[in-house]
Amino acid sequence: MPQSASTFSKLRPLFRQMALLAAISAALSLALVLYLYGSQDQFLIRLSGAFFVFFWLLATTFLAAVPFVSWAAANWFGPAWAKTPAGPSRRKKPAAVVSRTPARAVARPKPTNRNHP
User: Are 49 and 33 in contact (CB under 8 A)?
Assistant: First the structure.
């Protein structure tokens, strides 16, 4: 009889993604707080606040918004919409390209100081 997968093993990819987002958030918040304030007083309070803001924004974007948009595109517009490749919209170059020589540099006259005596 096959064993059913435990709840932890089902959530393992989600925990891995959250750990990656936490590491990125920690690096971004540390860089931001050090750049703005240095390591002065209230460093840990500022660091924790910045960490939670970065973590919330990244988690909401990558764990909720992006999967929802992918799901909505696949289910609402149908599979034919997702599989249709966009055609190239570039124009072809003409066969005979005329090569032009660059224009000669024109010597400019020296400015005069007519306004000043």
Answer: no
> What residue type is 15 in one-letter code?
F
- In angstroms, the CA 70 to CA 83 distance is 13
Packing angle of the helix pair 43-60, 7-36 (nearest 10 deg): 130
Question: Are the CB atoms for 44 and 26 separated by under 8 Å?
Answer: no
Residue 14, CA distances (Å) to 57, 92, 96 in order: 16, 47, 57
Q: Are 68 and 23 in contact (CB under 8 A)?
A: no
- pLDDT, one tens digit per residue, over 23-62 is 999 999 999 999 999 988 899 999 999 999 999 999 999 9
pTM of the model: 0.57
Letter for the amino acid at 10? K
